[in-house]
Amino acid sequence: MNTPMHAARPTRALIADDERLLREQLRARLVEVWPELEIVAEAKNGAEAVRLTEAHHPDLVFLDIRMPGMSGVEAARAIAQLPTDDDTADAWRGCEIVFITAYDQYAIEAFEQGVVDYVLKPAERERLMVTVARIRKRLAQRDAGDSAGDIAGENIGGGAEPAPANMQLLLQTLAARMDPAKALRLRWIQATVGQSIQMIPVEEVLFFISDEKYTRVQTATLEALIRKPIKELIDELDANLFWQVHRSTLVNTKFIAGVSRDLRGRQLVSVKGHSEKLEVSRSFAGLFKGM
């Protein structure tokens, strides 16, 4: 029988904030309310947070929402694209995100939707205790493999693990509010089809699949190639319309016909208008818990 990952070792966390005193204050508060938590690294900016997350594989990352250079929101999107190992029970499956923020009404409203939690600056013991309780419950549910939630995910207050699609939508919303100039969504895909370039309406795309060099654009009538990776497409496509089901795959929710399992227990998405089935990696299996 597999032993839950967090029973074998302490929960590991990373703190990212460009202000040293606030990092120290949060660390001290965490020692008070979660003494067994192991702080494995501290970052001064978003880019460093991404590098350290990849190096240390923490279970939890505290991210200041506003940092110079790469913001906390941008770092969270990059962290979500870090490779995970879906083949072993004790593999790193990604991490929970807690945003650190001053009182920004738009941010608080978004966080209250329940997809992720937040800590207000300066971190207060009582509010941090609530955050810690929620995070510990989510981590325990994830390790036990019995987290509840329907296809759209459920509120954090109910104890369910947040659906990746909800996380993508939240990060997209926050990024747009922080920088309205980036709020415009991709409407057309300029792609190579044979020897010609075609303009493909985004709403007609069934799915995108990437390899190391190209991304395949699949519609009901044609297959095309572009040089834009999945991690860039995620930033430009409407997260309500396109869900990431694998590190290399985005699927148009309008064309999801159903979800089945193969003999190995892997989830496979059937797509309307195409015979190919798309594998759902373990990191994104929560999208279809109710199916």
What descriptors fit this protein?
OB fold (Dihydrolipoamide Acetyltransferase, E2P), 15 strands, five-stranded antiparallel sheet, 2 domains, five-stranded parallel sheet, alpha/beta, 291 residues, 8 helices, Rossmann fold, disordered N terminus, 30% helix
**H and E order:** HEHEHEHEHEHHEEEEEHEEEEE
- The CATH topology of the largest domain turns out to be Rossmann fold
Give a count of the beta strands, DSSP E runs of length 2 or more: 15
The total count of helices amounts to 8
State the distance separating the first and last CA atoms: 26 Å
Task: Give the structural class.
Answer: alpha/beta
Structural summary, described in words:
The longest helix is centred in the middle third of the chain and has 20 residues, at 125-144. The chain has 8 helices and 15 strands. β3 (60-64), α4 and β4 (96-101) form a beta-alpha-beta unit. The protein has 2 domains: 5-181, Rossmann fold (3-Layer(aba) Sandwich); 188-288, OB fold (Dihydrolipoamide Acetyltransferase, E2P), CATH 2.40.50.1020. The protein has 291 residues and is an alpha/beta fold. Helices cover 30% and strands 25% of the residues. The strands form 4 sheets. A 5-stranded parallel beta sheet has the order 2-1-3-4-5, sandwiched between helices. Strands 10-9-8-12-11 form a 5-stranded antiparallel beta sheet. Strands 13-14-15 form a 3-stranded antiparallel beta sheet, with no helix packed on it. Residues 1-7 and 146-162 have low confidence and may be disordered. α3 (46-56) runs parallel beside α4, α4 packs antiparallel against α7 and α5 (105-111) packs antiparallel against α7.
